[in-house]
Design a protein that fits this description.
about 30% helix; single chain; alpha+beta; 10 helices
Length: about 450
């Protein structure tokens, strides 16, 4: 196992919107935003093939990256702001004032760029020095950026983003806007829609979420990207697994054949995400069976938490470029003995189908349980939390150096059960699943995953 990458910080700076370009603004959080206060920041790493020396990069490329980021923050100025709770307001607000800025770290790494961009198992701790830290201040910054040069090989762009400012949809708009301005000097994407009053509050829901948040905020480290860097994380390994359309079709046909033999209708919503997640869920349950001991008997029910876009499911119009969170939280559940039985994949897919059907019928159904259910998932040894989605086309981010060589979500290190599912870079219609597990569990998972796809004929 390769050791952690040696990283040397070259300099630190701050990048702000152009002076006088953005008005002072306060954005109260909506009921969609408040549950995200309990989640760790997401920490995405984009690796780009770029054979340049450190000196050339810092003198030629870096100034353009800073300038294009500044122009991006002109439209996405809440990303430069801070999360505060003033005595005058019961609801936390994202506040932007003239002079607010984003912290940027520029560093140089001594490591094997090709190795770290691979799908194989790697030391999870090797990635921690490539993502920035958010500040320890009481007024929580919304974003920080780190750019790391692997001389004559490539660069990584790491971003730590507080969940309160944006969901994955908004982040995808942001990073694609930045790359477009850097590459072309202009941006053809829709401008962000900053008016959060467009979200219609549900009576009593915001107050309930605020009450739950206040109850738990003292024991929740808001600067949670620290938790992904604890010393014991070096015992974890990170790997990526890919399902192709052909393999997903094999999973689907296996499910259909099982249903036919049982004279049951097939589950609804057998999408690529459902097929892949059902298969991964079963493999993870088997791989982590060793975590259950006689002192801690296994739970009767296993859960898989995920979020889905709510914009298209609301009964009123919200612009696709709305800047903020607009997600529904889902939690599929299966009896443990079913999930680990011979029809586990079918049981998992059916559980996803049931939950997705509920969300389609009533997107805010059960919303009052979002925080309590997800808080239990985040601390679980046996459940799963799925992050991101293939619909965002993150591999479509292009600064002019071509598509990312690799994308990693580092914050899943901080979760005992987090996985990251995005589109495949190299297989059209395929999916990439990023995992972080102890090495012995990763070895078992890898065997189950690859051998399982072979036998699902």
């Amino acid at each position: 196992m390769n050791p952690a990458i040696a990283v040397r910080v070259l300099h630190r700076c701050r990048v702000a919107p152009p002076p006088g370009s953005a008005p002072p603004t306060s954005l109260p959080l909506t009921f969609f935003d408040i549950p995200c206060l309990l989640f760790p920041p997401y920490e995405l790493l984009f690796f780009f093939q770029l054979p340049t020396t450190t000196s050339h990069f810092t003198s030629v490329t870096l100034p353009k990256l800073k300038h294009s980021l500044s122009l991006t923050l002109l439209e996405y100025f809440p990303f430069s702001g801070r999360l505060i709770q003033s005595p005058e307001s019961e609801t936390p607000e994202i506040v932007y004032s003239e002079g607010d800025s984003v912290a940027m770290t520029v560093a140089e790494a001594d490591g094997d760029f090709d190795y770290i961009c691979g799908h194989h198992s790697k030391d999870a701790g090797a990635f921690h020095e490539l993502v920035p830290w958010l500040s320890d201040s009481d007024e929580v910054p919304m974003m920080a950026v780190q750019i790391t040069v692997f001389s004559n090989a490539g660069i990584s762009i790491g971003l730590a983003v507080d969940h309160a400012v944006a969901d994955g949809r908004t982040f995808a708009y942001f990073i694609k806007t930045w790359s477009s301005i850097f590459r072309d000097g202009d941006n053809s994407l829709p401008k962000p829609f900053n008016d959060r009053s467009i979200i219609k509050e549900v009576e009593g829901l915001k107050e309930l979420f605020l009450q739950q948040w206040r109850k738990h905020k003292k024991c929740v480290n808001k600067n949670k990207n620290k938790t992904s860097r604890e010393d014991d994380s070096v015992r974890l390994v990170r790997a990526t697994f890919v399902t192709s359309p052909r393999e997903m079709e094999k999973i689907k046909q296996w499910i259909m054949n099982k249903c036919e033999r049982k004279s049951k209708p097939p589950p609804p919503y057998l999408t690529p995400w459902v097929l892949t997640s059902a298969f991964v869920w079963v493999c993870l349950c088997e791989a982590r069976a060793g975590r259950v001991t006689t002192a801690a008997p296994p739970p009767d029910t296993c859960f898989f938490g995920y979020n889905g876009g709510a914009i298209s499911r609301l009964d009123y119009a919200v612009p696709a470029a709305y800047l903020g969170n607009c997600l529904a939280f889902g939690r599929a559940e299966v009896a443990r003995k079913e999930l680990m039985g011979e029809d586990g994949i079918l049981a998992a897919a059916a559980a996803f189908g049931r939950k997705m059907k509920e969300v389609d019928v009533e997107v805010l159904g059960g919303a009052e349980r979002w925080i309590s259910e997800w808080e239990a998932l985040m601390g679980s040894d046996v459940d799963v939390v799925g992050m991101w989605t293939a619909k965002l086309d993150l591999y479509g981010v292009d600064f002019g150096w071509g598509r990312p060589r690799k994308i990693e979500e580092v914050s899943i290190d901080a979760m005992k059960s987090g996985i990251c599912v995005i589109e495949s870079r190299d297989i059209n219609g395929g999916l990439e699943v990023g995992l972080v597990l102890p090495k012995n569990e990763m070895d078992v998972f890898s065997s189950l995953f690859h051998e399982g796809l072979k036998v699902l004929a």
